[in-house]
C-alpha cells in the first residue's frame, strides 16, 4: 500500500498534487511519501514484536539523507556496504551501534572507520576478510563483532542478477565450510563471534526459500553451540519482494511470523536488512511527455526521464507501472515510453496503453528503491531532484544537479602540454 492515489482525475502524493510538484521543481523529479516510508518500516518492526530484533534498513536501496534521518528517528538500524554509506548514516543522525556492515570487498580503512565509530557487527564474507579484520582490530586494540555471511545454496527464484545465495555466487561462505571458519574466528584474539548472517537474493515473492535458508542456518547454529561457540543473533538479510505488477509477495507480518515459528524458544535476536520492501513503494518518478512519435511499427512517448535516472527497466527488464498524472477521457493508444538517451535499451516501459498528449505528466511507480540510488550522469544528464511529501507539506531533499556540479572536479591539461 502507498499514498500515491487519485483525487478525482489528478494523481496526488499524500495531500499534494503531483502537478504542483512538477510546476515547482520541474521534471524529471523523484517524489517520496513519508507516510508510506514510515508505514513500511513500522510493518517490519511491529511484525517482529516482542522478540528481540533490529530492523537494519539497507541503505543501498535509497541513501538520501532526509530519508535516512526519518528512519533514524524511528530507531532504525542500517545495513551498509561501503564507508560512504556509513558516513551517510552518521550524517543523517543514525546510531552507529545499530549498523551492520555487509559486502565482500571491505578495505582496511573501511574497517578502521567502522571500528572507530563502534558499529554493531561486520558481516564477514571470506576467510581473508576475517583475517584482515582481526589484524585491523588488533592495531586499534579492540575486538570486532562478527557474523559470518553464509551461503546456504538455495534458489530464491528471482532475476539472476539479484540472486545471491546460490553456490556459484561470489557472496558469502559456503555453508558446508562455515563451521570450520567459525572455529577459526573463535580462536582469533580480536574477533568476537556475535551472529550468523545470510542474504539469498532480492525481490523474493515466496517464503519457502527464506525458510529453507533459515533451516540450514539453524542447523549450523546448533552444531556450533555443541562446540561451545555461542551465536547471539541471526541476520536474515533483506530480499522480501514487493508488488510491481501482479506479484503477491508475503507481507512482513507473514514473513516474521514464519521466522518466529521456526525459531521456537531459541533466544536468538533477529536482524533483518530490508531495503526494497521499506522504500520501494514510497517513491515515484515524475516525468513529462516531450514528444509523441509514430513510426511504421510503433508509437513512442518520448519523456524527459531516461535510463540514467531509472536503470531498472534497462538492466533487469524491471516492470514499473506508468500512470498519467492527470487522467484524460478518450481512446488509449499503445506506447513504448522511452527516454532521450542514445541507447535502444533506454525505455521505461513497453506496450503501455495510455491516453496522453504532448506535455502531459506521467508517474512511474514503485521506484523508491534502486531508483535514484542507481542513477548516473550518462549522456551528461544532471541527476533529478528528490522531494519528500509529508501530508500537505513538500520538502526538497535534494536539489536538481546543476551544470556546474555535473563538471565539478574535472580538470583540463595545461595549455603548454
Ligand atoms: N542485505 C544485503 C547484504 C544485500 O545485498 C541487499 C541487496 C539487501 C540487504 C537489501 O535487499 P532488498 O531488501 O532491497 O531486496 N538493484 C537491484 C537490487 C539489488 C539488491 C542488492 N542487494 C534491483 O533494482 O532490483
From TrEMBL:
<keyword id="KW-0456">Lyase</keyword>
<feature type="binding site">
    <location>
        <position position="312"/>
    </location>
    <ligand>
        <name>substrate</name>
    </ligand>
</feature>
<dbReference type="Pfam" id="PF02784">
    <property type="entry name" value="Orn_Arg_deC_N"/>
</dbReference>
<feature type="binding site">
    <location>
        <position position="276"/>
    </location>
    <ligand>
        <name>substrate</name>
    </ligand>
</feature>
<feature type="binding site">
    <location>
        <position position="239"/>
    </location>
    <ligand>
        <name>pyridoxal 5'-phosphate</name>
    </ligand>
</feature>
<dbReference type="InterPro" id="IPR022643">
    <property type="entry name" value="De-COase2_C"/>
</dbReference>
<comment type="pathway">
    <text>Amino-acid biosynthesis; L-lysine biosynthesis via DAP pathway; L-lysine from DL-2,6-diaminopimelate: step 1/1.</text>
</comment>
<dbReference type="InterPro" id="IPR009006">
    <property type="entry name" value="Ala_racemase/Decarboxylase_C"/>
</dbReference>
<dbReference type="GO" id="GO:0008836">
    <property type="term" value="F:diaminopimelate decarboxylase activity"/>
</dbReference>
<dbReference type="InterPro" id="IPR000183">
    <property type="entry name" value="Orn/DAP/Arg_de-COase"/>
</dbReference>
<feature type="binding site">
    <location>
        <begin position="273"/>
        <end position="276"/>
    </location>
    <ligand>
        <name>pyridoxal 5'-phosphate</name>
    </ligand>
</feature>
<dbReference type="InterPro" id="IPR002986">
    <property type="entry name" value="DAP_deCOOHase_LysA"/>
</dbReference>
<protein>
    <recommendedName>
        <fullName>Diaminopimelate decarboxylase</fullName>
        <ecNumber>4.1.1.20</ecNumber>
    </recommendedName>
</protein>
<feature type="binding site">
    <location>
        <position position="370"/>
    </location>
    <ligand>
        <name>substrate</name>
    </ligand>
</feature>
<dbReference type="InterPro" id="IPR022657">
    <property type="entry name" value="De-COase2_CS"/>
</dbReference>
<feature type="active site" description="Proton donor">
    <location>
        <position position="342"/>
    </location>
</feature>
<comment type="function">
    <text>Specifically catalyzes the decarboxylation of meso-diaminopimelate (meso-DAP) to L-lysine.</text>
</comment>
<dbReference type="GO" id="GO:0009089">
    <property type="term" value="P:lysine biosynthetic process via diaminopimelate"/>
</dbReference>
<keyword id="KW-0028">Amino-acid biosynthesis</keyword>
<dbReference type="InterPro" id="IPR022644">
    <property type="entry name" value="De-COase2_N"/>
</dbReference>
<feature type="binding site">
    <location>
        <position position="343"/>
    </location>
    <ligand>
        <name>substrate</name>
    </ligand>
</feature>
<feature type="binding site">
    <location>
        <position position="370"/>
    </location>
    <ligand>
        <name>pyridoxal 5'-phosphate</name>
    </ligand>
</feature>
<feature type="domain" description="Orn/DAP/Arg decarboxylase 2 C-terminal">
    <location>
        <begin position="29"/>
        <end position="368"/>
    </location>
</feature>
<comment type="subunit">
    <text>Homodimer.</text>
</comment>
<feature type="binding site">
    <location>
        <position position="316"/>
    </location>
    <ligand>
        <name>substrate</name>
    </ligand>
</feature>
<keyword id="KW-0210">Decarboxylase</keyword>
<dbReference type="InterPro" id="IPR029066">
    <property type="entry name" value="PLP-binding_barrel"/>
</dbReference>
<feature type="modified residue" description="N6-(pyridoxal phosphate)lysine">
    <location>
        <position position="60"/>
    </location>
</feature>
<keyword id="KW-0663">Pyridoxal phosphate</keyword>
<comment type="similarity">
    <text>Belongs to the Orn/Lys/Arg decarboxylase class-II family. LysA subfamily.</text>
</comment>
<dbReference type="Pfam" id="PF00278">
    <property type="entry name" value="Orn_DAP_Arg_deC"/>
</dbReference>
<dbReference type="GO" id="GO:0030170">
    <property type="term" value="F:pyridoxal phosphate binding"/>
</dbReference>
<feature type="domain" description="Orn/DAP/Arg decarboxylase 2 N-terminal">
    <location>
        <begin position="35"/>
        <end position="280"/>
    </location>
</feature>
<keyword id="KW-0457">Lysine biosynthesis</keyword>
<dbReference type="InterPro" id="IPR022653">
    <property type="entry name" value="De-COase2_pyr-phos_BS"/>
</dbReference>
Amino acid at each position: 500500500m502507498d499514498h500515491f492515489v487519485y483525487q478525482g482525475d489528478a494523481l496526488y502524493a499524500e495531500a499534494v498534487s503531483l502537478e504542483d510538484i512538477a510546476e515547482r521543481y520541474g521534471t524529471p523529479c523523484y517524489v517520496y511519501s513519508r507516510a508510506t516510508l514510515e508505514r513500511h518500516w513500522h510493518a517490519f518492526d511491529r511484525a517482529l514484536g516482542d522478540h528481540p530484533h533490529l530492523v537494519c534498513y539497507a541503505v543501498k536501496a535509497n541513501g538520501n539523507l532526509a530519508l535516512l534521518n526519518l528512519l533514524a528517528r524511528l530507531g532504525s538500524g542500517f545495513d551498509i556496504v561501503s564507508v560512504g554509506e556509513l558516513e551517510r548514516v552518521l550524517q543523517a543522525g543514525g546510531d552507529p551501534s545499530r549498523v551492520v556492515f555487509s559486502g565482500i570487498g571491505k578495505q582496511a580503512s573501511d574497517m578502521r572507520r567502522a571500528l572507530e565509530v563502534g558499529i554493531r557487527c561486520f558481516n564477514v564474507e571470506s576467510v581473508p576478510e576475517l583475517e584482515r579484520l582481526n589484524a585491523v582490530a588488533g592495531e586499534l586494540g579492540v575486538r570486532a563483532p562478527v557474523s559470518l555471511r553464509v551461503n546456504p545454496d538455495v534458489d530464491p527464484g528471482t532475476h539472476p542478477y539479484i540472486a545471491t545465495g546460490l553456490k556459484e555466487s561470489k557472496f558469502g561462505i559456503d555453508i558446508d565450510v562455515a563451521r570450520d571458519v567459525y572455529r577459526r574466528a573463535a580462536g582469533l584474539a580480536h574477533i568476537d563471534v556475535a551472529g550468523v548472517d545470510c542474504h539469498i537474493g532480492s525481490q523474493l515473492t515466496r517464503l519457502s526459500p527464506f525458510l529453507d535458508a533459515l533451516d540450514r542456518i539453524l542447523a549450523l547454529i546448533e552444531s556450533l553451540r555443541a562446540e561451545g561457540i555461542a551465536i547471539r543473533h541471526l541476520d536474515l538479510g533483506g530480499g522480501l519482494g514487493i508488488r510491481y505488477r501482479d506479484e503477491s509477495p508475503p507481507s512482513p507480518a507473514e514473513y516474521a511470523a514464519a521466522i518466529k515459528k521456526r525459531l521456537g524458544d531459541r533466544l536468538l535476536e533477529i536482524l533483518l536488512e530490508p531495503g526494497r520492501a521499506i522504500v520501494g513503494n514510497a517513491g515515484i518518478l515524475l516525468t513529462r511527455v516531450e514528444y509523441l512519435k509514430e513510426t511504421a511499427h510503433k508509437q513512442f512517448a518520448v519523456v524527459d526521464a531516461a535510463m540514467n535516472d531509472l536503470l531498472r527497466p534497462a538492466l533487469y527488464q524491471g516492470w514499473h507501472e506508468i500512470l498519467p498524472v492527470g487522467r484524460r477521457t478518450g481512446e488509449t493508444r499503445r506506447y513504448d515510453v522511452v527516454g532521450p538517451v542514445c541507447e535502444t535499451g533506454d525505455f521505461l516501459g513497453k506496450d503501455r496503453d495510455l491516453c496522453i498528449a504532448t506535455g502531459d505528466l506521467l508517474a512511474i511507480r514503485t521506484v523508491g528503491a534502486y531508483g535514484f540510488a542507481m542513477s548516473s550522469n550518462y549522456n551528461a544528464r544532471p541527476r533529478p531532484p528528490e522531494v519528500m511529501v509529508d501530508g500537505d507539506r513538500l520538502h526538497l531533499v535534494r536539489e536538481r544537479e546543476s551544470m556546474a556540479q555535473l563538471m565539478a572536479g574535472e580538470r583540463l591539461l595545461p595549455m603548454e602540454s
